[in-house]
Amino acid sequence: MAEEIITRSSEETTNWGRELAKRLTAPVLVLLTGDLGSGKTTLTKGIVAGLGAASENEVTSPTFTLVHVYGKASKVYHADLYRIDSFHDFETLGLEDVFAKPAIVILEWSERFPLQSSWPKVHIRMEHHGGDSRRISVL
Ligand SMILES: Nc1ncnc2c1ncn2[C@@H]1O[C@H](COP(=O)(O)OP(=O)(O)O)[C@@H](O)[C@H]1O
Ligand SMILES: [Mg+2]
User: Fold this and answer.
1) Is 34 in the pocket of ligand 1 (CB under 6 A)?
2) In contact, 41 and 108? CB cutoff 8 Å
């Protein structure tokens, strides 16, 4: 499903995330790459809201808190590997629990640690594209 879109505001990015959510079924890993401020957390707000797991406002950056979990019956996990500098740090994330049952797992800075998982993966690259524009590529 290779595709590329340009969004021109954070609202356009969250709206696209809501659309993407319709195509996601657990188990799936959504791997987000892109510089700081490229919109990974903003996109996640749209995905989580689109899945009906939480409202956009409830979704915040897990940079310091490691792993956020949303939803009741079916879980949506949101983690950020930005500050993960060692394999030991990576292990302390407790991601094994995340993979215990089919879930939707959204990872920011996913390229920092390659995950060994047989779950289907959706790779999304986000890039600054001048001002409030962002290029979102589904790889
Ligand atoms: N088109 C856009 N898409 C996403 N975010 C945008 C866009 N235009 C401006 N922004 C702003 O850029 C910032 C993106 O931050 P964030 O989503 O936390 O990025 P990341 O998680 O990649 O570091 C937010 O302040 C957001 O409001
Ligand atoms: Mg972020």
Assistant:
1) yes
2) yes
